[in-house]
Amino acid sequence: MMQNVHLAPETDEDDLYSGYNDYNPTYDTEELENDTAFQQAVRTSHGRRPPITAKIPSTAVTRPIATGYGSKISLTSSMGRPMTGPIQDGVTRPMTAVRAAGFTKAALRGSAFDPLGQSRGPAPPLEAKNEDSPEEKIRQLEKKVNELVEESCIANSCGDLKLALEKAKDAGRKERVLVRQREQVTTPENINLDLTYSVLFNLASQYSANEMYAEALNTYQVIVKNKMFSNAGRLKVNMGNIYLKQRNYSKAIKFYRMALDQIPSVHKEMRIKIMQNIGVTFIKTGQYSDAINSFEHIMNMAPNLKAGFNLILSYFAVGDREKMKKAFQKLIAVPLEIDEDDKYISPSDDPHTNLVIEAIKNDHLRHMEHERKAMAEKYIMTAAKLIAPVIETSFAVGYDWCVEVVKASQYVELANDLEINKAITYLRQKDFNQAVETLKMFEKKDSRVKSAAATNLSFLYYLENEFAQASSYADSAVNSDRYNPSALTNKGNTVFANGDYEKAAEFYKEALRNDSSCTEALYNIGLTYKKLNRLDEALDCFLKLHAILRNSAQVLYQIANVYELMEDPNQAIDWLMQLISVVPTDCRALSKLGELYDSEGDKSQAFQYYYESYRYFPSNIEVIEWLGAYYIDTQFCEKAIHYFERASLIQPTQVKWQLMVASCFRRSGNYQKALDTYKDIHKKFPENVECLRFLVRLCTDIGLKEVQEYATKLKRLEKMKEIREQRIKSGRDGSGGSRSKREGSAGSDASYVDPLGPQIERPKTAAKKRIDEDDFADEELGDDLLPE
């Protein structure tokens, strides 16, 4: 078998290292002196080249170049380069067709080699632009117009609409000047249409932002009617929006439809938005069937949350129960297109991965996802609360249907919120028992829902003044979710109701630590500090709350009340003035202002605010009493009669108001009217001694015969009064003597104790005085403080 195998000879093997010593003989410069062609080229005019800077060692003999066929032909130039011309008579012709770079005729005169032209010195300065040329003026003016448009847009984004409009107008004026200059210099075809379009569009937008709708519509018309502007027809959407703001719904629909016809079908998203605007306009005009067609088309082509919600509203308006259910199911099925929360949970302990997850947890995209989810939940909850009472025979059955649909969707967590809303609906219908039963169903649910239900139950029992139950459910809510500020606030309220203000303050503080924006806890802790007479801390709390709720009437009143307790009436008056600027018809605030001015001695200001309070609420006895006393003090008894008559209507069983009316008649000199009034009072209150005294006095002064009759009645009543007082005195002495005997037997150091017990003094108004001390002894009325 080996006889057929032939080995190759060693001479045929290729040498791996052969060829490294071979080189092109053209570059052999060792024996150039013996090269005849080179020497001949040197002696010719072509060979007169400038000397090179580098010195080349000796020349080389010309070697033949190997060709592809193995032949060796001598092809060299005068400088040793391969020849480009033919060989004539055995003598090579020097190369003359190509001149080497950097060599000029000046080199023949001994100039140095300077291929970069450095010997010529620095380059001459650039020629200055001719700023007076028309083209340069047009270029600068165009740049200025672009800058004005940009400044207008920036001002609009910053909220300075007036400045944005001024910049847009200035850009429009300069752009018109630019167009005229272009027409004088160049042909009309060279006009910058894009710049004209952007200037007009920005001007129309700024007019619309400043609610100058007529000017905006005119500017849009200029753009739309110009056929040179491509795609200008879609600006009819903006014109439709302006007509919608003007409540010109028919024209709005017309322009929306014109824009829809001019937008190609490839712009699907734009067409959907226009269809949605058309549907909303139909709802505003009450054309619900046309609105339903628009929203149904959107939900079939590209469903979204707004269109689904508006479709439910339209079906609710026409009262179609089944279609409401189907629309609600379509709304539930709208994809949110957001990532799941599992994406933000690190699957491993890789520090790089954890770092990336921490970075994207709170980025702008994550916030956008939260906003989209919150908006979807808002639409679904609102739609469920809207349709639940009407889709079934009762709202409870309707809520149950909505809950089942939500449980089968991606919004499972909303089912519990719907159940809580069901309980709130029971409360609105004043069905307290059903609300409590519904909320008690959550006692076995997860901690978050259980805490929310227990918080509501605590609130309900607190309103019913069942503080024990309220405290129990508040504890349950706090135990389920210790970080629930509402639960902690309710717990603090129950403790506050029991009088433990220090402990209540601790709960309110914990609620604030969990949620610094919990205004209820901050308000309640201010009330707690007031109860503890820590007025400075209470004032700090209410001032912080005022920084959050600028126009809260309750907060303003509390600040004024604290200043009043701190005996700073000027500050109290200032804050009450802010209060009546928020609620100018609050009769309590007006009467409090009158009271403060009265305490300061400013009767005219006090009268003004008391009178304003009386105008808004003419049934406040304290205000009526003050106004009557004011007119008596100023000697206008006739005007005081009106107020005391109203007081007698409000409190018909109080004889003092009718006595004051009669007294006013007597003081004003109308004795006959006073006598008639006293007689009426005597008929209603025959045992009133004061009335009989004045009847006796008037009858005596006038000389009437009834004086003897009234005098007899007066003596009988005074005698009965003396007998009654003696009986009371003797009863007190007897009970006091027996008690002293008993206590004396117990111990000789025992002191006398009043059997009536301690007397409680009602708060007095410092600026009040008795209305008529001469007529009768009138008791002073206490302050009626505003409720906290």
From TrEMBL:
Top-level taxon: Eukaryota
Gene3D superfamilies: Tetratricopeptide repeat domain (1.25.40.10)
Keywords: Cell projection, Cilium, Cilium biogenesis/degradation, Cytoplasm, Cytoskeleton, Flagellum, Repeat, TPR repeat
Cited Pfam families: ANAPC3, TPR_12, TPR_6, TPR_8
Compartments it resides in: Cell projection, Cilium, Flagellum; Cytoplasm, Cytoskeleton, Cilium basal body; Cytoplasm, Cytoskeleton, Microtubule organizing center, Centrosome, Centriole
Acidic residues biased stretches: 773-788
Assembly, per entry: Component of the IFT complex B, at least composed of IFT20, IFT22, IFT25, IFT27, IFT46, IFT52, TRAF3IP1/IFT54, IFT57, IFT74, IFT80, IFT81, and IFT88. Interacts with IFT20, IFT22, IFT25, IFT27, IFT52, TRAF3IP1, IFT74, IFT80 and IFT81. Interacts with IFT172. Interacts with IFT57. Interacts with IFT46. Interacts with IFT70B. Interacts with C2CD3. Interacts with ENTR1 (via N-terminus). Interacts with LRRC56. Interacts with DZIP1. Interacts with CCDC38. Interacts with CCDC146. Interacts with CFAP53.
This protein's name: Intraflagellar transport protein 88 homolog
Organism: Trichechus manatus latirostris (Florida manatee)
Lineage of the organism: Eukaryota, Metazoa, Chordata, Craniata, Vertebrata
